[in-house]
Amino acid sequence: MTVLIIEDEELAATTLANMLELINPEIKVLAVLGTVESAVTWLKREHADLIFMDIHLGDGESFAIFEQVSINSPVIYTTAYDQYTLKAFKNQGIDYLLKPFDEEDVRASLTKLESLRLKQENVRHTGAGIRPIPAGFRNRFMVKVGRLIKTVPTDEIAYFMADDKYLFLLTHDEKRYIIEDTISSLEPKLDGRDFYRINRKFIIHISSIKEMYRLSRNRIRIILSPKPEDVEVVVSEERSESFKDWLNQ
Fold first, then answer.
1. CATH architecture of 2-126
2. Alpha-carbon distance values, 171 to 58, 143, 160, 180, 226 (Å)
């Protein structure tokens, strides 16, 4: 496997290259680049199977690279900042390593890459997607406001939230309605490209995600817009990997 390292700190780049050699001597580091400009120039004429990419480079954020050149390789982001998770997974990211990371973190990322590749191979051979989209999904919901009955299109929905015996629908403009459904029965009725059930209480729309932060045990804390009152929104440990797949589709 060939690897490109985009990192402006010489010690960090050397340490990462040494880790990769220890993990798998067959990994070949093709280049180490420290700026957006040099990365764009290299990627216009070369290709690597995998890219390790710091976010803050000598001449700007590495996301600017994607605005200037097409990148098809998976990217593992390496950074000291945790506020770029969502943007990373929208730009070819398959993992997000917070500095300082160690050999086991890198090894886990490479294992995840191999797992994703096996899933993709399975999709090609079977013709079946990782997360199939059910036919006939809902595109609007009927709600009641006193004696008034109205419909809410799904593109206005930020998320669904289960609270005690009720299921609430919350819109982007902060309106809240009770709907007559359960979160388990609702999940297969929604378009899986836009909605994802992150835990037992929440099904969220991709556009409702404001920020994301890594927690222990591979969990992810999400800041939603609008923000629910007195509730910490966390992607459960068992759903975190498929959640990242969903972000990256």
1. 3-Layer(aba) Sandwich (3.40)
2. 41, 12, 9, 16, 8
